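--- STAGE predict ---
source: upstream dedup step, 1 unique chain passed
mode: sequence only
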Amino acid sequence: MISLSSLTFAYPHQPALFEDFTWQVADGQSWAVLGVSGCGKTTLLYLLAGLLQPTGGRLLVGGAPLNRPRTQTGLVLQDYGLLPWATVRQNVQLGLRVRTFYGPDGKHSPSRSVPQQPVDAWLERLGIAGVAGQYPQRLSGGQRQRAAIARTLVLHPDLLLMDEPFSSLDALTRESLQDLALELWREQGFTFILVTHAIEEAACLGQYILVLGQAPQRQAQVVANPGSLDPGWRSAPAYQDFCRTLRGYLEEARDGAKA
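--- STAGE serialize ---
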């Protein structure tokens, strides 16, 4: 699904965040990208979304070079990205309207009406049908994030990228949406990559965890997490053990980069 080969990236007039970085992601896997602030987590996500271009190396998504954003890639941001002047329903329809205008290949095509049925289905599925006529400022943080997820999944992406989507939510809402994200991943079969700074969230959502230390990133440190597929994993003693192990990897990556 995703192949990074000797990838290098630096913002203009800034030190490189990635140097000859290689990483592979298979179809249908769930990954958490975990690292300290400033290590390049969000930059990596924007590279995978086609919003940034590497300054060196090769980046393939779905077997093709990624030269611009893909219509099959969904991106959910930390600040939800909802239009404040549009209702929940209109926000969820937004991606479909854009795809209707540009067509499934991302090029202009004759305008067609936006199909209503998938919008209604996703509003129901994510439990926000009752607030479909409300504006974002009248919603809770959890409802806004559900709207952002619905807007993305209505397009049936094969790759879902999420940038610290639950960090501003209270603990119970955060856990509820984490469980929902896992449930949707199992149902839909998309490849799932979540950027987070929270060890517990990475341990909950990632089959694999990519641990990033201080920049520049030169080698992908991957930690397998087979327990993430077990029912009740969050409440299992092994989950706490894995979180401690993961913390050790993160501290090692941080301190090793400093050395």
